[in-house]
Amino acid sequence: MSGAILVVTEHLAGSFTDATFELLALGRELATDTGTELEAAVVGSDVSDMAGSLGAPDRVLVIDDPALESFNPVGHADAVSALVADREPSIVLVPYTSTGMDMASHIAIRSDLPLVSYCQSIDPADGLSATCQLYAGKVEADVTIDGDRAVFAVLAGAASAANGRGDGSPDIEQIANPAGSGGGTVFTELAEPEAGDVDITSEEVLVVVGRGIESEDNIAEAVELAEALGGVVAASRPIVDQGWLPKTRQVGKSGLTVAPKVYLALGVSGAPEHVEGMREASTIIAVNTDPQAPIFGVAHYGWVGDLFDLLPELTDRLE
Amino acid sequence: MDIGVLLRAVPDPVEELELNDDETDLDRDYLGYVLNEFDEHALEEALLLKEDTDGSVTAYALGTADEVEQMLFTAIAKGADKAVKVGDGLGALDAHAQADLFVGALGEHDLILCGVQASDEIDGQVAMLVSAKLGHPHVSVVVGTSPGADTLTITKEYWAGITASYEVSLPAVLGIQAARQAPRYVAVSRIRQAQESGALTETDADPPSSSSGITITAVRIPETGAGAEMIDGDEEAAADRIIELLAAAGVGGAA
Amino acid sequence: MTRGVNPKVDPGRVLEIEHVEIDGMDISGHWNRMYEQRVIFDYDIHQLDRVTELDGGESMGWCYQCAQCIAVCPVDHVGSYGPRKIFRNLQLGQDLFTDDDLWLCTTCANCLRVCPKEVDMLQIMPAVRKEAVLAGAVPAELQDVFEKTARYGNPLGKNAKRRAAWTKGLDVEVPLISEVGRKVDVLWWVSDYPSYHPRGIDASRALARVLTHLGVDFAILGADERHDGDSMLRAGETGLFEMLAEQNIETLNGYEFDVLLTTDPHAYNAFLHEYPQRGGTYNAVHYTQFLEERIEALGLTEQIDRTITFHDPCYLGRHNGEYDAPRNLIDALPGSEFVEMWRNKENGYCCGGGGGGMWLDGLAADNQNMRLSEKRVLEAVETGADTLCVVCPYEVSRFEDAVKSTNNDGNLEVLDIAELLATALGLPTD
Lengths: 319, 255, 430
Hints:
A: alpha/beta; 5-stranded parallel beta sheet; 9 helices; C: alpha/beta; 4-stranded parallel beta sheet
């Protein structure tokens, strides 16, 4: 393999995200397997010190541009696309996150590279191939890639973030922004979520409701159970999108990452976007009517059945 | 504001999925399709912007499934001014082909909205592929919009409820995660009226110009519960076991 | 001691003489106070007009507030409701089109039975609901059911292709009419809950065994059957009803059969009164009527040691006048004793499931002090019966839930007449 492995990093408020370290861990494995170098691209303003803190890559490519201090969907995509077009890495790893989604397609189109999305593993031996999750995690697909270069939008959990921290001291290469500075899109402000009545990330017991709860009124039953357990109710994205519970109760990719002692999932299907926010929970118990539900893939214990039959039984036993 | 919204038919998530004989795709013979839920939000946001700006909405969908016409009639019934069905009997398409067909069919619009993702986009997100092909400004994972004079203020969600605001110049392409409000209900009689309205036009599909460069060689349904201990029995047995597990974890006052 | 004038009254309108004494009694000041005459304002009745202007809404204006309806309105017994109150609230400016009150009526028809002015809530409520549905102002839980029914052809949102899955593993054959390839005597319209709900399935399997025992030449539609649409019509989703009716009529007109046997009184009602206007005329019979005609042929032998009470479904009883068929079947159960609840037949209480109420449990909970099904279960328990016999598939789950929520688990069993008959015939159970 000729070109390097390039990880497109993600950072907010001076810190790299976990997704970045997971990609660095994955990138390091691929670099070792293929005998190439691992590079990381860091785009931002005044980010050299932060770039130097990365221990896993052999080299960090820094594009320092005051206009790109905050993430800019157009500016960042253009800058990284130009970098990739110029340096021709063999494999580009982009996190399948809010920022990665703005960049991956543009990098691929600009350099006319295949793009592999929902990617959970990559195999560089014997031609480039990968495994992906489709249909909200219900199906796994093996794909082969034309040629020996590609962009991968990688799901959370593809590698361990701990393995991506490393303790090396990479070369830092400063690169003038090869593109514009996000023309047409201007960052104006960042907003933290309003503090909720509870912090689900610090609770030991979460009773988590998904689509299977069916209606807003049924949530009361889950609340009753959560209270009996000394915990609180959380939810998957569809429930929050419906406005049935506040955003502060949402677990998953666009919500919060939690790791409680007990995670009781009621009618949660377990799409990858949900699973990435809860797979570190100590004991995961899942209840779903669909025996194919992907939540059973991450759960420690599962029961196939109707949550509305189970809820009163549980509440009775706890009274 | 003149808005184009891109709608995709995806396999109904409630369906039990089955694989075809050579295990390279779903068995699509009896598969039911629904409007991609993120596209439903994109349509809702488009309709809200239409109301904000006294604008117009054109809905586009590719003729990949029988259900597509019904989705477009529903869009008209909800308030889209025009609907365009691109091609017919196209069957399942990858995201690159979908993006090419949409770009070929799109008229002039100030803004193009599409769901941020769909469950079958193995070769990239259609919304951002379209933006890359058109060269328009783009923002993905959008959870709200508010129109200005020549720009749009949009809210993008990062993660954990953290959001960022951007001013985006038009024309632009947005990948919608969630509309400002839950998608509206439309009465079936309105959909039936829409079928008579003549607002649906059909166009031929240009052959896709680019290939995704990836090939699916095998698909499988992951063995669920592979690592999980599955509890047998009825709800009483399940409740008993779960109480034991809770006690073992030291919660529920049962320990 | 003088008393101040109500500050809301214009002082110029207060008539008061400072010093007056009549027959030695001092009635000075406020003791003789009077007010000038004033015009009593007309009500602003534009909200009432909005209702009476609708096709079907006219009779709302005929109410003269005798309140006979309130005494029999099942919703008023668990809250405050009824046609008279709705009329009064409209006079006072309530916007019925967006008020919860719009969705509480179960279209049970008891008010119409007693109304001297024939104020017809069976027309009024669907007419106003239709406008609310067109405006998108539908309670979320009901909207969800509309969407599921439009998409899957059943309000449970179950896979349409699995509609006949309940016949799997059954010890008798339940043929699909599409596979029979000839005219059948009886086409059984199974309906949604009997096809998908676990307790509905129990009753369906029992009825299949009973029909087979009778040697009836019957078949079902399976995946080609869709929701009958009657309750959608009452809930105001007229377009959804029209769509379902068109599809069902097209399906039914493709087959030959003598009798259309219905499990669900709502479907029975639709086939009698709604489908004929749309080109679907069938010899629709409720299964209790079909079986009553064959009591002798059934040859019930096994003792049923139960005290049984019976709940009249609104759409079998008040709407279509059938009170005797189910009672005659219960009477024929060997060894059983039959007791009536105090509200029965024409005055039977409603289970709460009609008119869309089946899917408005949350809204009902917000507006009522108990569910109608709970009220009815308490009445059933009061009779001393150990069994509540039902003949409408909406009721089994509603009443079983109510038995639990009123702490009557073990006191009252809810059974479909088909289950009781199958037991009395000594047929296998699941």
